[in-house]
Amino acid sequence: MRGLLTRGLFFLLVGWIPLSGYCAPVPAAQLNQPCLACHADGDIQGISTDKVQANLVVSADKYHDSVHGEVPCIACHQSQPGSEGFSVTPHVLKPGDDQNCESCHGVAMRNTVHAVQQSVHSEKIAKGLFSCTSCHNAHTMTAGELNHPGKQRVADDNLMCTNCHSRAGVFTQLSGGKRSTSQDMAHSALPYASEHLNSLRCIDCHADAADTTLHRILPASKAISCVQCHGDGTLLTARRKTFAPDENAMAGSLLGKGLFDDVSLREKLTAVAPPVPAVRQIDGVLFTDTYMIGNNGSGQADRFIAWALGGFVVLLLCHGLGRLIMSRRKADMPLEKSYLYTLPVRCWHWLNALCFAVLIISGCALHWVSARFSLWVDVHNIAGVSLCVIWLGFILVAMCGNGHHYQVRWQGIKGRLIRQTRYYLYGIFRGEPHPEHASPAAKFNILQQLGYIGVMFLLLPLLIVTGLLMMYPGYTPETLFALPGKQVVAWLHYALAVVMVAFIIVHLYLCSTGDTPGALIKGMLDGFHRARKQK
């Protein structure tokens, strides 16, 4: 009888206070004190008889800091009518007590509720096997914010999913008999699987790409798409949130719903200064300490480079057209052949050309996010590793006797540079002989020699190093030159790739500058260098 009187006074106090206009409202912490007297004590797990596995312990500090910190416990937890209430244990709660989230969130978060009803979990919800609290801990949830969470935060967030999906008995029960081992929890088919798992939440990929609430969970075959993050859109930015909706993002979402005075609400929203976003996306640069292939590009830089390379190609075409017109005046002379390109050199050359072709095609597919993005990632990586091996083969061949072609003869280099430059700009149109002829002692003229040295011993090693750092981003320094390391490496890799493309364009054009248009190409096929016999 005394317990009933105590409970009656408690609920009378709770119900009376909001109606008392002349007294201050009682803080939620004070109202929750009778509940926390037991539930803040870790020993409550030991005295529970019917919920041995339930998380009955509630940290008073964490609850106070959560989004529900000002909500009384009895606003969500209610005893069953006719029971003895909360004065006895175990408590007999009102049926459906763990599904009362919609009573508050059904209006302000109606889109989220609707998304849950369309998710893969909806069938379990109807059977009473799944609810909001299966994933969300209402006692510890904090307000969402756009941020770049660390690996520990991501791991903690993903624990909500793995709590069911990695537990054999629970998963079998919820999935209708499937074995937990039927899932590829290691995501072995995913490029950079460890990086994805350490830096992304499960819902970033497994939620419907068109669902901004992240609650319409679909089967993996329907939800996962590389483009949803690696495209030019800002979907990843919107998804890098904590679980509760951002209060600032919800500002004004209830306008026109008939719930508030819209005029006064607009005045309040106007008076509030917009918060500074924790995530900055300026011209494609997402966040300030990371890099994402396909998302961090700059359209302005791409357009500038495209125009520059296009203009360069037009210039070379004009040069070639001039040669074609003037070549008609050149007398026909017999060709001499000399064996100059050995089989190892030719094999290296064509393998190198094949790798560069694959790297350029796959690199474009990654940069502009084409279909089958993950496949292009694997292709680009395989071609990159192959290029490393081929470059080492080049070094080996150079050390075994081919390296003398890259040794610069400094004596008279100024005059040689002037003569070779004059030949390409003037003499080639008049049919003048080459200033320097290819021979077993020196295959390249001075301009070719300096170009190949810069490419093979400087640009290509840098391209390989930056590519490996992007392939293994964990080894990339956090900062380079006081700038975010991953962005510096990525932009340097992109710049080097552009320079290499320009070099390949020049290289292909120079292949036509032999004594006949196809002489140099034939030489790289059969090893014989062809040149006109001079009188």
Automatic annotation (TrEMBL):
The chain crosses the membrane at residues 304-326, 347-370, 382-401, 450-471, 491-510. Residues 67-106 form the Cytochrome c-552/4 domain. It is a multi-pass membrane protein. Signal peptide: none annotated. Keywords: Cell membrane, Electron transport, Heme, Iron, Membrane, Metal-binding, Transmembrane, Transmembrane helix, Transport. It is found in: Cell membrane. It comes from the Bacteria. Residues 131-167 form the Doubled CXXCH motif domain. Residues 341-526 form the Cytochrome b561 bacterial/Ni-hydrogenase domain. NCBIfam families: PRK15006.1. Belongs to the HupC/HyaC/HydC family. This is Thiosulfate reductase cytochrome B subunit. It comes from Citrobacter meridianamericanus.
